[in-house]
Model the fold of this input.
Amino acid sequence: MTAPLRGHSLTSPGAKPRMPALYEEDVSTQYPAPQAHARFPRADADAVRARRAFGAPPQGAQKTLGVSPGPAVSETFSRDDRLRKRREFEECYASGVRVSGRHLQLFLLPGDAGSRRLGVSVGKRSGGAVTRNLLRRRVREIFRRNRPGLPEGFRVVVNVKPSAASTSFAELARDYLSALRRGLSRARGR
Done:
């Protein structure tokens, strides 16, 4: 067993370290005075933009910016706007007006007053499930955007042709609108 160093024992409290600890520092308890703009001191602020005070917001009615002042248009496409039953599709096929476009085939049937309804049919020849769902969503969106152009009470069934899978949204919309115009003129002539 080794003997303790001279002048030091393991249990004596009198031993002082030779160097002060580096992690200790005297810290003031006073907070510095807050600056006007603590994030950007004035010396580093943008010299081009002058500091100016903004006035109070104006009172009363004001002109709206970026909002259409026209009548509100329904942006939804609910379950009530869709043809869901086989019987409804077959009625349109049997007694509706058929109009063929380049990428779509439309069946138009005047029906209940006050509702415009859409049915979409996309065959498996158009592509896989992802492509077919994309085509359905595109046709629904085209119908929703152009719903005011369709008279009240019409039911529309859209059969999507396989060639629609490779077309753009704008071309599909043009094809739908031209077929719809021709179909409405035939339906009114009946």
In short: Strands lie at 97-100, 104-110, 117-122, 154-160. The helical segments are 86-95, 129-145, 169-189. The first strand starts at residue 97 and ends at 100. The CA atoms of residues 62 and 154 lie 41 Å apart.
